[in-house]
Amino acid sequence: MLRIHQALAAGTHPNASTIAADLEVCTKTIHRDLEFMRDRLGLPLAFVAAHNGYHYTESVESFPAMQISEGELFALLVAEKALAAYRGTAFEAPLSSAFKKISAGLPDSVSLHLAEWEKTVSFHTSAEPVVNLETFNLLAKAVGARQQLRLRYRKPGQAEPETRVVDPYHLGNINGDWFLFAHDHLRNDLRTFVPARVLAAEPTGKTFAPPKKFSLRERLRNSFGVHSGEGEFKIALRFHERVADYIREKRWHPSQELTELADGIVELRVKLSSLVEVTRWVLSWGGDCRVLAPKELAESVRAAARKLLVK
Predict the structure, then answer these.
(1) CA 217 from chain center: how many Å?
(2) Which of 189, 225, 252, 283 would suit a FRET pair with 244, their CA atoms being 20 to 30 Å apart?
(3) 193 and 237 fall within a common domain
(4) Residue 260, beta-bridge partner list
(5) Is 292 strand, coil or helix?
(6) Is the CA virtual torsion 194, 198, 204, 205 positive or negative?
(7) Measured at the alpha carbon of residue 133, what is the angle toward residues 131 and 135, in degrees to the nearest 5?
(8) What pLDDT is attached to residue 74?
(9) Do 147 and 190 have their domain in common?
(10) Is residue 264 part of a domain?
(11) CATH number for the domain including 6?
């Protein structure tokens, strides 16, 4: 109903069919919501035949007040802190607007018995991705508007950038790093781009319809980060007791299986489609992680370790 209210307040004259399609529900549900908003919440809602949609017959400053518990309010404040990472990006304005709308719907006075909550929770990132904000904003808007883009893109280790024409499907923050998932017309395939490597971007003037089968969750289901491959690897790693607690404290992958061994040692098993990211992760444990399987991963780690020894 809040989404319906926002559309009505914007003066777009939405109807039950357009709202239902946007929210992916049936039109009967929307009709019930509209009736509730008009009859129970007392909102000045009316249908305008000329526009084939609904509108407010008088100004409505905010959605009727919602009830919120102390725990919910604290969770909201924590979320606002977490969003500090998006200051200066294209997400700042809509996020700020969303928080203002939520706060406008809260009761006139709310008591939160948490002394100096500002000092109780914070978020810190030691290595933030370097992204050109102008480019990032253009990418974000293109994803939302489904605009095709022409990129000047330089891959790691590549001397000269390439021109890529892409249909940007999704902009995601994964483990603190931003990635653009887009259909690359040069490769005729879905590819992953790093916004920090985009040297220039401009709309081609064309729009696109994203495929219905695109699912970021499905694409990353068997990856250890963002790299997806065509392989199928059953990873088995053994961690020394010195670092075993760090492994126990996190869920590293949806497929993981943890086995407790003697002397505080643990074994971690996951199923992945690529070895690129897990190889780097294994090396990061500095010898406290032993590769049991597969052979390809053990050889990759061994080769990387030899390179570290070369003077």
Answers:
(1) 10
(2) 225
(3) no
(4) 266
(5) strand
(6) positive
(7) 85
(8) 66
(9) yes
(10) yes
(11) 1.10.10
CATH number, domain containing residue 157: 2.30.30
Residue 51 lies in a domain: yes
Amino acid 211 reads P
Q: Are residues 45 and 56 in contact, defined by beta-carbon separation less than 8 angstroms?
A: yes
Q: 163: how many CB neighbours lie within 10 A of its CB?
A: 10
Does one domain contain both 109 and 153?
Answer: no
Q: What is the pTM of this model?
A: 0.62
- Structure confidence at residue 95 (pLDDT): 73
Looking up tokens 């220039």, which residue turns up? 200
Residues 201, 237, single domain; the answer is no
Residue 124 lies in a domain: no
pLDDT at position 113: 47
Q: In the numeric block, which tokens belong to residue 67?
A: 């009830």
Which tokens in the block code for residue 218?
A: 């499905």
Q: Which of 289, 283, 291 is nearest to 309 (CA)?
A: 283
Judgement on whether residues 190 and 146 belong to the same structural domain of the protein: yes
Q: What is the number of other CB atoms lying within 10 angstroms of the CB of residue 239? A: 23
- Count structural domains, the chain: 4
193 part of a folded domain: yes
Distances (CA, A) of 236 to 27, 118, 142, 239, 289: 50, 43, 41, 10, 10
Would you report the helix, strand and coil content of the chain in percent, each value rounded to 5?
35, 25, 40
The mean pLDDT values, 10 residues at a time, for the chain of 311 residues are 86 90 89 88 88 89 66 69 66 72 61 52 68 84 93 90 95 85 93 92 93 83 83 94 95 93 95 92 93 95 88 62
Using the structure block, give the residue that is written with the tokens 């002394």: 115
Q: What is d(CA 166, CA 187) in angstroms, rounded to the nearest whole number? A: 10
Listed residues 161, 186, 216: the one ending a domain: 216
